């Protein structure tokens, strides 16, 4: 056992204190820490001679990991995959939208199985629906001063610079800030049941960094219908409005009292704003899509949506030729880099022929990319129309250079105080 060899360069021997099991798929030894006097971690203990007497079985709650058969009952009580009590803000499918299963065909063939005539008809429908859409979005590329020094560091290569540009500073150091992390699927999240929001009656700003496909629609419905509509039905006003003192720079909380209208905004909106970096349109789902009415008004339905969201991957998947590809960066270093830096670069997910379908041969690469972008734009336009109907002023814009991320479109929305949003779902 070569204990003195650095972990990053050791390939023939396991690192001291780490599991001795060789993971064939990853071409390296397991990196899990082992117990004192043991050669294998708990997951690979069955490979050790001293552990052969005890049998490991798949966990019935999550087959992705194993457990000793004689300790199953004990494990089930503390397994992270066990069903946990649901919080008050969990309401099953509250943001899922209306289910209309009659519109969704039971089985649709992949794009690669469509006839050339069928595909041409779909493309014609797409182009007709896209007539009049503004495909030239406004550039709103900004950079935080905190990153300037790091971005201009001559030691950084293309990969490091790209990684820095993709980062968002999540370390909020403001002394009086309160943070609460909710581990819940957005599909089931009821914001007005969260104690802090219901008690303080605070306006919400929805921020999403690359909410994959359907998650964007779930988030919009969570904000606009679940939270905003419920607050308006109760005619709630904010408990307090933060006023900034120009001299001290400190924030003072002033409670809105009867007869003191200066402390209350003329028109208070439960949702003060929405900012979502869009991506992974190929992962959208008609059942949850917020722009159904927009599609129907264009004479389109679930079938067209299904193929458009599949074809949207043509805009970002496997057809790009950027300066980053032409650079001389070694591909051997990819495993050592942070996987998050490459997140969503190729359409968000590893797309296979089964999910998106192979692009037809009668189209050129540029034609496929244009069709893919038009599919994305049409899906996003449905979201824009939805927000407009709900009393918001939405906009689509570029927030970063395509060399940094091909998924570079941002959806923003502010409440439109000149019109009252619809209260019906």
TrEMBL record:
Which intervals hold domain CHHC U11-48K-type?
56-83
Where is the stretch described as Disordered? 326-360
EC number per UniProt: 2.1.1.225
Q: Does the keyword Transferase apply?
A: yes
- Record carries keyword DNA repair: no
- Keywords assigned by UniProt, alphabetized: Metal-binding, Methyltransferase, S-adenosyl-L-methionine, Transferase, tRNA processing, Zinc, Zinc-finger
Record field: catalytic activity: adenosine(4) in tRNA(His) + S-adenosyl-L-methionine = 2'-O-methyladenosine(4) in tRNA(His) + S-adenosyl-L-homocysteine + H(+); cytidine(4) in tRNA(Gly)(GCC) + S-adenosyl-L-methionine = 2'-O-methylcytidine(4) in tRNA(Gly)(GCC) + S-adenosyl-L-homocysteine + H(+); cytidine(4) in tRNA(Pro) + S-adenosyl-L-methionine = 2'-O-methylcytidine(4) in tRNA(Pro) + S-adenosyl-L-homocysteine + H(+)
Name the enzyme group at the top EC level.
transferase
Extract the GO molecular function terms from the UniProt entry: tRNA 2'-O-methyltransferase activity; zinc ion binding
Q: Name one GO biological process term.
A: tRNA methylation
Please, which domain of life does this record's source organism belong to?
Eukaryota
Q: Name one Pfam family in it.
A: zf-U11-48K
Role this protein plays: tRNA methylase which 2'-O-methylates cytidine(4) in tRNA(Pro) and tRNA(Gly)(GCC), and adenosine(4) in tRNA(His).
Q: Which family does it belong to?
A: Belongs to the methyltransferase TRM13 family.
Protein name per UniProt: tRNA:m(4)X modification enzyme TRM13
Q: Which organism is it from?
A: Enhydra lutris kenyoni (northern sea otter)
């Amino acid at each position: 056992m070569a204990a003195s060899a650095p972990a990053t360069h050791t390939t023939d021997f396991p690192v001291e204190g780490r599991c001795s099991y060789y993971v064939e798929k990853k071409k390296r030894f397991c990196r899990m820490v082992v117990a004192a006097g043991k050669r294998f971690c708990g997951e690979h203990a069955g490979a050790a001679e001293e552990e052969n007497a005890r049998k490991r079985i798949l966990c019935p709650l999550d087959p992705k990991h194993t457990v000793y058969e004689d300790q199953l009952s004990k494990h089930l009580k503390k397994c992270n995959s066990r069903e946990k009590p649901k919080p008050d803000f969990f309401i099953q499918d509250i943001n899922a939208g209306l289910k209309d299963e009659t519109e969704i065909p039971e089985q649709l063939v992949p794009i690669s199985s469509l006839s050339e005539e069928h595909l041409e008809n779909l493309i014609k429908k797409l182009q007709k629906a896209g007539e009049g859409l503004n495909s030239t979005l406004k550039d709103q590329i900004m950079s935080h001063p905190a990153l300037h020094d790091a971005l201009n560091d001559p030691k950084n290569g293309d990969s490091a610079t790209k990684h820095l540009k993709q980062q968002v500073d999540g370390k909020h150091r403001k002394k009086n800030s309160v943070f609460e992390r909710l581990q819940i699927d957005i599909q089931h999240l009821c914001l007005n049941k969260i104690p802090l929001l219901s008690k303080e009656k605070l306006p919400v700003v929805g921020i999403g960094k690359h909410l994959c496909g359907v998650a964007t629609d779930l988030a919009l419905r969570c904000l606009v219908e679940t939270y905003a509509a419920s607050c308006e039905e109760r005619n709630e006003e904010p408990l307090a409005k933060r006023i900034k003192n120009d001299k001290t720079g400190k924030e003072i909380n002033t409670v809105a009292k009867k007869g003191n209208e200066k402390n209350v905004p003329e028109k208070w909106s439960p949702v003060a704003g929405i900012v979502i970096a869009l991506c992974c349109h190929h992962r959208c789902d008609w059942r949850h899509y917020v722009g159904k009415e927009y599609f129907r008004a264009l004479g389109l339905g679930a079938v067209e949506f299904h193929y458009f969201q599949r074809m949207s991957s043509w805009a970002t998947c496997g057809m790009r030729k950027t300066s980053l590809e032409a650079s001389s960066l070694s591909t051997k270093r990819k495993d050592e880099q942070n996987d998050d830096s490459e997140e969503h670069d190729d359409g968000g997910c590893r797309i296979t022929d089964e999910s998106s379908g192979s692009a037809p041969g009668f189209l050129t690469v540029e034609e496929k990319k244009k069709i893919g972008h038009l599919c994305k734009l049409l899906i996003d336009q449905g979201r824009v129309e939805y927000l407009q109907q709900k009393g918001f002023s939405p906009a689509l814009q570029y927030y970063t250079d395509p060399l940094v991320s091909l998924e570079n479109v941002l959806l923003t929305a502010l409440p439109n105080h000149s019109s009252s949003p619809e209260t019906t779902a």
